[in-house]
Each structure stands twice: as C-alpha cells, then as structure tokens.
Amino acid sequence: GDSVTQMEGPVTLSEEAFLTINCTYTATGYPSLFWYVQYPGEGLQLLLKATKADDKGSNKGFEATYRKETTSFHLEKGSVQVSDSAVYFCALSGLGGFKTIFGAGTRLFVKA
Amino acid sequence: GAVVSQHPSWVICKSGTSVKIECRSLDFQATTMFWYRQFPKQSLMLMATSNEGSKATYEQGVEKDKFLINHASLTLSTLTVTSAHPEDSSFYICSARDEVAGGLSYEQYFGPGTRLTVT
After folding, report:
1. How far is CA A36 from the centre of its chain?
2. In chain B, which residues have their Cβ closer than 8 Å to the Cβ of A45?
3. CB–CB of A98 and B109 under 8 A?
4. For every residue of B30-90, which 3-state class applies, written as one string?
C-alpha cells in the first residue's frame, strides 16, 4: 500500500549546521508531497509542499524537491537555528480522496 | 490563512465518563474533516473522516461506537470519546481542507490538538 518512510530521529545538530531529513514514499499514483512541522504541545503546521515531479517546495529556509525517479522528498536547510527544534513529518496525499498518509516523524534538536 | 481551532486544548476526565472535543474551521467551510490520534513521540494515526451531513468513515480498527463523530455544519465537527478509559489518553488532532480557496489542493490545516487524560 501507499506509505511514507522517513529517517529515524532524534537528529541533534549545532546551530548553523546543515540539515537533511530523508523521506521516501511508495505510491501507486502521483501524490502531492508535504512536510509538516510540529512544535512541542501544538498541532501540525504546513512547512512546504510540492504537487508534481521536479517541483521544489521552500519556506523559512527549508526546501525539498519532489524526485519521482527516486520517490524521495528530502528536507534540507542550510543553517538551522535553535527555534527549528521540532518534529518534522513527511506526508503524501492525493491518492483517492483527500486522506493524508504521514511518516513516523523525525525529531530535531538544535543546540546553541 | 485558514485556521482550525479545537476545544478544549486539554481535558482530564474520570474513567467511564464521556468527553466531547470540538473542531472548528474559523474562516472557511469544510465538508470533510479528519480526526487523528497521536501517541507520545509517534506519528499521527488517522481515526476517521468526518463528513458534513452524513456518517463518518472510520479507519480499520477504530471503534465507531467508542469514538462518535458528528459533523453537523460546514464549520464544526465533534469527536466524543464515550466511556473513556486510561488507554484512550492521547493527543487528538483534527484537520480540514479549505475546499473553496484550496481547490484540488491536498493541503490540510490542522487544529492545535486536544490532550486527553483519563484517570
């Protein structure tokens, strides 16, 4: 079935380090891909999205490119800040209805 | 942007009682809302799809008599946890699509979540 696999955390980085969180997906069609972020005790917020192959989503210094050939949507940021500490979820939707399938989430800790 | 609210943000109840959680789309209409459950340090598990004016669609393994969903208007869905037990303690999150502004976009707007603790 359709699924999302993302790297296990936690990921611990120092401020200004480069961030990559890997995400791959399995889908029978052509989904839309998302990264959501969850800060402690809060709901999810959309971070960025891409709706078709080769699209690049970007927001707040984060970016991810929809790679159909490798079925991937890796999240990157060139210089993380302490305020980026959160849980990041890769997700897909658009395969029959509007249900969203989430990856397991990756917790990021950024140290000052 | 589209805003989804949930009420209450946290609730403590005694075992055997029922708890109602509200999910509202504040500035848009949603014929479909989604209810998720999240265990500590885990991902979101879709419980059910709430459909305005009709029955909810439950995911496999979710007890529909335990988790009652009512979507009575285009801006409100409620989840009632009936006869709650400690194992129902969890973080419950709802989401909705802005079906007008969003068109065919699959982007979801999430509520801030409700933390339920059953003692």
Report:
1. 6
2. 110
3. no
4. CCEEEEEEECCCCCEEEEEEEECCCCCEECCCCCCCCEEEEEEECCEEEEEECCCCHHHCE
Do A104 and B41 lie within an 8 Å CB cutoff? no
What are the tens digits of pLDDT across the range A16-63?
999 999 999 999 888 999 999 999 878 889 999 999 999 999 999 999
Question: What digits encode the pLDDT tens for the residues B74-107?
Answer: 999 999 999 999 999 999 999 998 776 656 666 7
Question: Is B97 in Cβ contact with A98 (below 8 Å)?
Answer: yes
Burial class of residue B58 in the structure, from the number of CB atoms within 10 Å of its CB (0-12 exposed, 13-18 middle, 19+ buried)? middle
Contact A92, A52 (CB under 8 A): no
Cα distance between residue B114 and residue B36, in whole Å? 10
Nearest Cα of chain B lies from the Cα of A2 at a distance, in angstroms, of 14
| Subunit contact B106:A100, Cβ cutoff 8 A | yes
Pairing, β A86-93 against β A100-102: antiparallel
B30 in Cβ contact with B74 (< 8 Å): yes
Q: Enter the tokens of residue A75.
A: 């999240």
* Residues linked to residue B5 through DSSP beta bridges, in sequence order: B24
Report the residue from B32, B43, B110 with minimal CB separation from A43. Answer: B110
